[in-house]
Amino acid sequence: MTVQGSCEPRFATVAEEFERNLTERGEVGASVCVVVDGETVVDLWGGDAAPGLPWLHDTIGHVWSCTKGATALCAHMLASRGELDLDAPVVRHWPEYGSRGKDGTLVRHLLTHQAGLPALREPLPSGAFYDWKLMADRLAGEEPFWEPGTRHGYHALTFGFLVGEVVRRVSGRSLGSFFREEVAEPLGLDFWLGLPEEQEGRVAPTIPAETPARLPSFYAAAFADPASIPALLLGNDGGYMTTPGESDTRTAHAAEFGAVGAVTNARGLAGMYRPLSLGGGGLVAEEQLAIMSPAQSASSVDAVLLVPTRFSLGFMKAVDNRHLPAADSEGALLTETAFGHAGMGGSVGFCDPPARLAFGYTMNRQGTGLGINPRGQALVDAVYRSLGHRRARGGLWYRPT
User: Fold this and answer.
1) CA 215/CA 236 separation, integer angstroms
2) Could you tell me the pTM of the whole model?
């Protein structure tokens, strides 16, 4: 496998692990980018984007739930400007949302996966996720599965419409337009929430994960009980997840799908988190950055994923699930100060402000777990080792004093 790009000698182990991913861990095509103190210290890519086509400097791909980090950032930018109060009721900006026991839902509940709307009960029409108004109206009229604020469960597909509709109502712009105009274009990022048609030829098609011998608890519950939240989440999706290849279509890439629809590469992910690693970098004030990082919701059993998860206001936090059976053992072995988001199959982007670190990893061959899989974790571990961090007894990283 040919690896291209640049890597400072201090971070040589990151390049070594990247090469091992390609030669020993089943990687097909991938990119990794590390930014420290605002400077790019690792920018590597390699493998195949598609059969017979190498992964190039400008190859991009579907990063699934890494998208949630971009959507959450848009909300925090509005909050930092004083235009959005995260502790206010959602109905202040979205009056229709207050029906069926949701009038007390706070904006923060949407960001922390505590809103109680991880799925919809009544069947969605084909292509529903490409119709923003339809999804916003359906969610506004849905009864929550639990009292908002009392539990947390991963809103895998609805998060983008819930948070994105608040962004739309407050800013007067669609989520994709806001992100493009306020984040991607000013920072010069190759990061798309609504991919233009002229960029489609650079997208590396997703290679679905192979079915594991033992399914993660989330998928096992979905197949065992068609009335369960996992089953409704996966099955009532307008065909996005249930139709093979649908998420790789031109229509899917063009949609402003704020939960799982973004298209970018490692450079784009690290570039989005770079300003946050430097204290806000003009995207948010330092005071807002301090609000973005701390864990706000955590549970030994996520009401949807059925494994331990932790979230700040819109971002994943470190969690060590290695004590669980292999199918459920993937978590996020970061530092307690880091925050970001992983995507289905293994992509991940995050920042660690005290370490002045921003990180991005994308790939086309998906893994089977629900967190940062071994390929991505190997890269993260190599970065922290290069920075002089060590593992705590619980498995998370820390910087010795």
Assistant:
1) 20
2) 0.98
Residues 6+ apart with CB under 8 A from 398: 335, 336, 389, 390, 391, 392
Cα–Cα distance, 186 to 200 (Å, whole number): 22
Pull the structure tokens for residue 102: 């949701």
Out of 31, 65, 247, 277, the active site residue is 65
The answer to the question of residue 139 being in a domain is no
Cβ neighbours of 222 (radius 10 Å): 19
User: Domains in the chain: how many in total?
Assistant: 1
What one-letter code names the amino acid at 361?
A: Y
Residue reference for tokens 């991009």: 60
Residue 65 annotated as catalytic: yes
Under 8 Å between Cβ of 38 and 357: no
Q: 137 falls in which pLDDT band (50, 70, 90)?
A: very high
> 212 to each of 209, 260, 341, 370, 378, how far by Cα in Å?
8, 22, 23, 13, 21
Pairing of strands 60-62, 203-204: parallel
Short-list 334, 333, 326, 335, CA closest to 307: 326
DSSP lists the bridge partners of residue 316 as 311, 340
Task: Give 261's Cβ-side CA count (13 Å radius).
Answer: 30
Q: In which domain, by residue range, is 367 found? A: 3-71+180-398
pLDDT for 1 equals: 64
pLDDT tens by residue, 194-250 = 999 999 999 999 999 998 889 999 999 999 999 999 999 999 999 999 999 999 999
Asked whether 233 and 225 are in contact (CB, 8 A), the reply is no
CATH number assigned to the domain comprising residue 214 = 3.40.710.10
Q: How far, in whole angstroms, is CA 188 from its chain's centroid?
A: 20
